[in-house]
Every structure is written in structure tokens, then in C-alpha cells.
Known about the structure:
By secondary structure, this protein is of the alpha/beta class. The protein has helices at residues 12-24, 64-73, 81-92, 105-127, 154-164, 202-213, 221-227, 242-260, 267-277, 289-296, 331-336, 343-354, 387-404, 414-420, 427-430, 449-454, 458-482; strands spanning 2-6, 32-36, 131-135, 141-146, 169-174, 177-181, 186-189, 322-326, 362-366, 373-376, 379-382, 408-412, 434-437, 441-446. The N and C termini lie far apart (81 Å).
Amino acid sequence: MRRVVLAGRGDLAEWRDAARAFAAAGILPEEIDWREKNAEADLAFQRDAMPPAPVTRKPMTVPPAFIELAETVLCHSDPARFSLLYRLLWRLQLDRQLLEVASDEDVVRARLMAKNVRRDAHKMTAFVRFKEVGAAAAGRRKFIAWFEPDHHIVRRTAPFFQRRFTDMDWLIATPKGSAGWDGKRLTMNDAPCEKPNLTDATDDLWRIYYASIFNPARLKLKAMQAEMPKKYWKNLPEADLIPGLIAAAESQVRAMAAREATQSLPFHDRLQEAARNIPAEPEAPAGTLEALRAEAAVCTRCPLHAKATQTVFGEGPRDAAVMFVGEQPGDQEDISGRPFVGPAGKLLDQVIAEAGIDRSALYVTNAVKHFKYEPRGKRRIHQKPNMGEVKHCRWWLDRELALIKPKLIVAMGATALAALTDVKERLQDVRGKAMAIEGGRTLFVTVHPSYLLRIPDERLKAQEMARFRQDMLEIQRLMASAG
């Protein structure tokens, strides 16, 4: 029996070199004792286990599918993976179609190992949470993340993070090694790491986001735990909300069902009911914000008024130095008559508060004042306003600007940008920039918070949430400098 010890960190070349030497010498699978290096094993590859010289025999060849399979299986943590692959190598010389035999015990076992490795890598890309630890060289931000993989996937998965987070310095530490990126070089280390004790403000953003997308009516515990197994919860900031959200799900579903019976009246019916039952308020002086709001309440300038519950006008101080402009009201805004009170508004409130911005000092409005939606059963699904509708509503936005006279205008989303300027550039090309516009004002462009809530990719969402937070910090700086 020949014994060979491998480092076993998912290195295909390491196993391939040993397997080639044994195969060339005609060593049968059952004659080799494959081992993975550990505290009791040798600290280096046991060269004395290798045959001194190969015998003359035909070189072994394998189909490309075996190379791909072996590369994945070698990342598994099962020590038997080495002997399994060597046995498949021998058997492929007699049956080139072996990997297509779905009932073969060795093939089934190898494919299951590969599936487990791919799943572990997917979970790593989904559940890594970076924590900011300060600034690196040349003003780059520096982050650390902790993850506990089941298999040796750090080297396999690190290039994904390099491509996705190339604009920041980061280190991903795990019990099975680490990977780091400094903007120029991706480095790997197989030494096990200890879990760092880190938190940052992004943890609260994850909690806000998760709470806002949790749908109690669609709660399926088994499906949720299959996608987010409990073993990952301890390293996810949003996971501490899960027990409470589950416990309150039943009562929230009952509350949602009760709200369905209070469908808002169409626009014209609401106006007629108001005229019949509500005493008229004293007319506001012309040229005031109150008069403009009353005038907009009966706006019929475009077809959107026909299905909306009411006009959702802007709100905030008459002399606000900063105006935030969104796209249009959503379902909850349409019912309440106030801008930014739904999930997107709650996210905005949280982020601007963290940036040191007082919402009560802002004038908050939308480019379009009526809710555009498509009925779908008992739900009303948001529809993006077209440019004709935006231009019709520009009349109201211009008058708000004329009365408020803000020094800084924040355009949230492409619709707001189009309503405020004739800029033809993509939103991503002007995002995060302060631009001078007519009237001696400054325009700052960012995304709409509802965009952050709709991003399906968890990794992209984390990146965009951090960037949105940085935009709000820049807005706070602009407010302070404007005095």
C-alpha cells in the first residue's frame, strides 16, 4: 500500500500530478492510501510514496467533462474525494461514457460532491457581509468579511468578489483560509482565520431592507431555511429579525386581509364625496404654497388623475434650502396623500437620518403627482410614467421650485432627472455628481430608494445600498457647505 498526503485545498494540479505518476506506473486504485494533510499527517507531500520510475504503458486520457468535475470535487472537504477521482480515472479508460451513467455509484457520489461545492460557493456569494474598517491607500475604502464555508471554496469564489468589488480593498476571512484584494492583486492564504468582531452602520440597512421585503402572506419556513440555512444566521445582521417576523406573520396576514376591504375610491368619486360631505376650507392667499397645493388637488392635466385616489403634493418648509424630487407616489402615498411614506420612504428616512440629515428641514416631492398603476387582482402594480405625463406634471414642479427656491435639488431616479433637466446622459453617468443648473442652484443625482428594494441580487443590493448611503453623506456635506 502506498500512502500519499495532499494539502487538499482544491488544487487540481496537486492531485493531477500525483495521479499521473501513479497511473503511469500502473498502480491500481486499491493500492493507494490517499490522505489529506492535517496536524497528524506529514507537513509535506510524501515523495517516497511515488513510484521511482514509470513503467511503459499507454498514457491515460479523459474527456473534458472529467477535468471540470475533478476541479469541483477536489474543493469538497471529504477526504475520500482523492481516491474516488482516481478510481473514476481508471474506469474511464475502459468506458469513455462512464460519466453519463446516471446510476453508477461512483458517478453519483462525485456529482453530489460537485453539487455541494457549487451550492457552498453560491451561499458564499450571497451571504458574505462586508464591514467597513476604514480607509486604505489612495482614499480607497477598506472592508473585512467573515464566512464559514463547508468546503475549500475560497480560491474558487474569490475571483467573483474581485470582479464585483474591484473599487474597494477587502479581506474575506474564513476557517479554511482567506482572500484579499488591494485594487491591484488578488492574494490567497490557506491559513485558518479567527472570526473578527466587527459591526458597522450597514448592518442596520440590511435589517431595514429585509423587514421591508418580508411578505408574511408568502411565508414558507422550509423554503426559507433551504435558501438561508440557519447555520448562516449568526453572521447575517438581518437574521436576528427572523424569529420576530415569523411570530408576527399570522397577525400581519389578518391585518392585510382587513385592509383589502378598504379599497380607495377612484379620483372623481372621491372629489364628489368630498364636495358633498366636507365643509370648504378658507381659500388660501394666491401665490402661496397652500394655494398651489389646493389648485393641484383638482388637477386634470393628464389622464393619470382618472384612476388615482388623490393628488400627492410635496411637503416641507416653505423656505427649505434642499428639495428632494422622486418619481411618483406609490400605493401607500396615493392612499395617505403624502409623499414618501411607503417602504421606499422608510428606507430614505433611515439613510438620511444616518447621514445626519433632518427630513423635517427638507421639501420632498415627486416629478409626477398622481399614482400610475396597473390593477392586478386586488393589488395595484406600479407603472413607470411616460415622458408625456412627466412633461404635463412639470408645470406643477416648476411652480414648486419657484415658491420654495431651494439652493440644492436632489434628483432621485431617472424620471426625476428628466423632469428637472434636459440632460441626455444615463443616470449612472451623472450619479453622485453635483451639477450647476439654472437659477444658481446645485443639482445632485442619485437613485430612487425603491430601486434598492427591487434589486434581486443580494450582492449587488449590498453594493448599491452602501453607495446610496455614501450619496446621502455627500448631500449632507453639500448642505453644510451651502450654510
